[in-house]
């Protein structure tokens, strides 16, 4: 087998392996379609209408499978060519792989409603190409004398890589099918008593550019350690409550829904959010109070914590007091009046007003153990984060944006401030390190959410810095001393640089 033939085969094996891993990644990570399908759809989009109609008339409902197969066939030819190119110039072949990946990326990102994360499968596919080509390429160049042996080893490696890639694709398919099945149960799920609530007009400060008080579902931040989102059918979900309790309890999803429902607006935020950062969101949550469940099982003396465990093995430790006092700590089944999105913990996750997510907001929760902080270390505590994670008083400027250029004169500025479960009393802004001046704040009607604020300033031409600080209802004033997110949340004033143009 000649060296250039081996390179061509290496190109084909590497190329198809990349398609397989990107397909698996697409199925596992997102519900959007894989790069191959995205390319197929791009072809459809750029095909003139009459050609597409002809094709559909000719092929009927088989048009999509035929198109996808054609795309795979054509790319396979391209893989062979680029592989062969590798025997001449490794550098030019790399450029060709890059160009192909860029094309895939374009196809994926030009889809309607594409997200930045849709690029991940393409990147994984590209990395697979490079790694496989490197492995195969080393053995593709035949040395005189040892050719028979070399050929056997090359073919074995190519077959091994091909089989491995096929296995990855099958695994992705397996997980993807599970996901589709659970998405289906989610769509069909009815949650009696769960309501949808629109934000009251008083929650709005009325300044364009300020973060919407209710976070749009697609804008709600996502933080977790899972590779593939757990897919739990509500019919199979169980929650075990045990540990220092009088009567251990195991609940089914129906058992949970049989209990009294609580609903509340709660703002959730991440301890890793830097000053001015985006890892915060507000939603209308519906669920069952943890306090009532803990009362049912009877908490024993000496307990001070609940160790929560997710279906994916992630754990967090929540202070017992936050789960038993009068706040709306709940096992949530709905977000904004709909069953939880899979990524946000379907079918059940915990929400505790006033605590950072890493110590409270367990997604895909399946186990609550009443225990003592001295007896365990939760996932993030083991990695250097604090055992306790109460939310810190904080505020953010949304308007103007950093680097904005505004006209001189009256300027409306605004943003959000939060101190969940304590409440925000007031917000102040300061221009260029000058005196603090009071901002107006909207009225969310609860202390468990953020508040919108706005102020009117008079600005003169030049470069300006705007700072914000909040005061909570306990009289605590936000400190300007900068503190890193590790180990229990950032501190400091958010500042925005902007410039004022001559009138
Ligand atoms: N199972 C599980 N639950 C989890 C996490 C996780 O990694 N795994 N991360 C926590 C963290 S750090 C935060 S900030 C919130 C984020 O919730 P969201 O992704 O719904 O916004 O979930 C919490 N619950
Ligand atoms: Mo977090």
Structure report:
It is a single chain. The protein is of the alpha+beta class and 503 residues long. The chain is 35% helix and 23% strand. Strand 1 and strand 2 form a beta hairpin. The relative contact order is 0.10. Bound molecules: the ligand Nc1nc2c(c(=O)[nH]1)N[C@H]1C(S)=C(S)[C@@H](COP(=O)(O)O)O[C@H]1N2 and molybdenum atom (MO).
What is the secondary structure topology, with strand pairs?
Layout: H1 3-29, H2 35-46, H3 49-59, H4 63-88, H5 90-109, H6 120-140, H7 147-188, E1 238-243, E2 249-252, H8 253-257, E3 262-269, E4 280-289, H9 290-297, E5 305-310, E6 315-319, H10 320-324, E7 330-335, E8 338-339, E9 349-351, E10 365-371, E11 394-399, E12 405-407, E13 409-418, E14 424-431, E15 437-438, E16 440-441, E17 451-459, E18 462-472, E19 494-501
Parallel strand pairs: 1-10, 12-19
Antiparallel strand pairs: 1-2, 3-4, 4-7, 5-6, 5-10, 7-8, 7-9, 11-13, 13-17, 14-15, 14-18, 16-17, 18-19
Helix pairs in contact: 1-4, 1-6, 1-7, 2-4, 2-5, 4-5, 5-6, 6-7
Bound molecules: the ligand Nc1nc2c(c(=O)[nH]1)N[C@H]1C(S)=C(S)[C@@H](COP(=O)(O)O)O[C@H]1N2 and molybdenum atom.
Molybdenum atom binds next to loops.
């Amino acid at each position: 087998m000649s060296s250039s033939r081996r390179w061509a085969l290496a190109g084909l094996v590497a190329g198809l392996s990349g398609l397989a891993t990107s397909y698996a990644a697409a199925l596992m990570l997102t519900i959007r379609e894989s790069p191959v399908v995205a390319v197929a759809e791009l072809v459809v989009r750029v095909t003139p209408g009459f050609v597409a109609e002809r094709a559909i008339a000719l092929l009927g409902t088989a048009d999509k499978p035929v198109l996808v197969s054609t795309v795979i066939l054509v790319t396979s030819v391209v893989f062979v060519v680029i592989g062969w190119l590798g025997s001449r110039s490794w550098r030019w072949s790399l450029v060709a792989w890059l160009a192909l990946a860029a094309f895939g990326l374009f196809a994926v990102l030009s889809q309607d409603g594409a997200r930045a994360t849709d690029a991940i499968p393409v990147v994984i596919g590209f990395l697979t190409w490079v790694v496989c080509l490197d492995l195969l390429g080393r053995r593709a160049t035949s040395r005189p004398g040892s050719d028979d042996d070399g050929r056997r080893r090359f073919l074995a490696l190519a077959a091994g890589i091909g089989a491995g890639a096929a296995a990855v694709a099958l695994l992705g398919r397996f997980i993807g099918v599970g996901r589709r099945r659970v998405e289906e149960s989610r769509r069909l799920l009815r949650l009696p008593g769960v309501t949808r609530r629109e934000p009251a007009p008083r929650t709005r400060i009325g300044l364009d550019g300020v973060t919407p008080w209710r976070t749009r579902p697609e804008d709600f931040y996502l933080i977790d350690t899972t590779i593939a989102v757990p897919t739990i059918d509500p019919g199979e979900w169980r929650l075990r409550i045990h540990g220092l309790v009088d009567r251990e309890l195991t609940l089914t999803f129906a058992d949970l829904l049989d209990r009294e429902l609580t609903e509340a607006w709660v703002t959730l935020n991440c301890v890793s959010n830097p000053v001015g950062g985006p890892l915060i969101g507000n939603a209308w949550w519906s669920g069952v109070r943890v306090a009532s469940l803990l009362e049912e099982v009877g908490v024993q003396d000496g307990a001070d914590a609940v160790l929560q465990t997710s279906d994916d093995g992630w754990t967090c430790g929540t202070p017992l007091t936050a789960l038993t006092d009068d706040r709306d700590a709940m096992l949530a089944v709905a977000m904004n009046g709909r069953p939880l999105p899979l990524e946000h913990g379907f079918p059940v996750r915990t929400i505790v007003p006033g605590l950072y997510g890493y110590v409270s907001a367990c997604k895909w929760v399946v186990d609550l153990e009443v225990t003592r902080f001295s007896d365990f270390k939760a996932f993030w505590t083991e990695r250097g984060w604090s055992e306790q994670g109460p939310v810190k008083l904080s505020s953010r400027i949304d308007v103007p944006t950093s680097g904005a250029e505004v006209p001189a004169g009256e300027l409306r500025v605004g943003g959000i401030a939060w101190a969940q479960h304590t409440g925000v009393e007031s917000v102040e802004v300061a221009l260029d390190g000058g005196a603090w001046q009071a901002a107006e704040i909207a009225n969310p009607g609860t202390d468990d959410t953020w508040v919108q604020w706005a102020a009117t300033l008079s600005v003169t031409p030049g470069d300006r810095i705007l700072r914000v600080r909040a005061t909570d209802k306990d009289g605590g004033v936000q400190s300007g001393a900068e503190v890193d997110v590790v180990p229990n949340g950032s501190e400091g004033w958010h500042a925005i640089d902007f410039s004022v143009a001559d009138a």
